[in-house]
Predict the 3D structure of the following.
Amino acid sequence: MPARENGHEEPVIRDNRKIDPETGQVREAPADEQEAPAEAPQAQNGELAAQLAERTADLQRLQAEYTNYRRRVERDRVAVREQAVAGALTELLPVLDDIGRARDHGELTGGFAKVAESLEAVLTKLGLSPFGQKGDPFDPTVHEALMHSYSTEVTEPIAVEVLQLGYRMGDRVLRPARVAVAEPEDATPASDDDDN
């Protein structure tokens, strides 16, 4: 390359256009490009296929992550809603207890009875259901035993009296039923004379 007056080399300009701007004719590729082996395009195709496969796998992974994220957000949204409803229903349980006591004493009459029925209907619609009846088998997961006794009339632990109803929302227990429990008496009482 010829040197410039200031000591730097002249820039090299290569015209890589496929069509000659002066003649409008298609240019032939330079000799060094024409002699390139036919394997080069195949190697480039192989690289492109590998890159395409890699990008496709990345895209599929990203799509799966997004789908899982949407499911997780929807599941969390449902859980938050259920927790909010359960919290509100739990706060209303003492009101339902008061309505039940008023009904038991015959004081639930007139307009107050209509309001109580409406409230109970709305709470049922929200999924609240009472449980705990006299005679139910005792289940420590849904019952809270406040009194305990033995009886010859039962064959398994039974709730003989319901002191306070329990409430659940779906499968979730909001408050256990408070009950008096009777267990069967042992047929043979234990004696201290077994050693003699």
About this structure: The chain has a mean pLDDT of 84. The longest helix spans residues 39-104. Strands lie at 128-131, 143-151, 158-164, 166-169, 172-175, 177-184.
